[in-house]
Design goal:
143 residues, alpha+beta, Umud Fragment, subunit A, 7-stranded antiparallel sheet, two-stranded antiparallel ribbon, 2 helices
């Protein structure tokens, strides 16, 4: 193998590693984000360490505890930021004051969403990344 071929192979491997650490392809499950996102939709997410601080109305992937038959489990969920530091979301007719690292997340389909109205606020550490775009149906981007 020539030096140029080795260099190209190493360069391609570094690009792939770089993409895996900056981007995430996630599949939407459940109906909590309808009509914006449907079950089975694939989204491209910019990982949090590279993205700007999430703001109100951003669609994000968060890691959160959800109820399962076996108890609580940490899962990746797609939600919308309903409030972040400086915002004052209304929750059961009470205005919340969010701390500097707190976020309030909601689904676009409130009747089908398990979100901050059920479990309270999350922290910025729970944010995996911010949605960049919906991938075309049938795409097989690595996730």
């Amino acid at each position: 193998m020539t030096t140029a071929l080795w260099a190209a192979s190493i360069g391609a491997a570094l690009v792939l590693v770089g993409l895996r650490t900056t981007l995430l392809a996630a599949t939407v499950s459940g109906q909590s984000m309808q009509p914006t996102l449907a079950p089975g939709d694939r989204i491209l997410v910019l990982r949090r360490w590279l993205a700007r601080r999430p703001r109100r109305d951003d669609v994000v992937v968060v890691r959160m505890a959800v109820p399962t038959r076996a108890g609580m489990a940490r899962r990746l969920m797609v939600k919308r930021i309903g409030g972040a530091h400086g915002d004052r979301p209304v929750f059961f007719d009470q205005m919340l004051l969010l701390g500097p690292r707190e976020i309030f997340v909601v689904g676009d389909n409130p009747e089908q969403s398990f979100d901050s109205r059920d479990f309270g606020t999350l922290t910025l550490d729970d944010v995996v990344g911010t949605m960049l775009c919906r991938l075309p149906r049938g795409s097989h981007a690595a996730g």
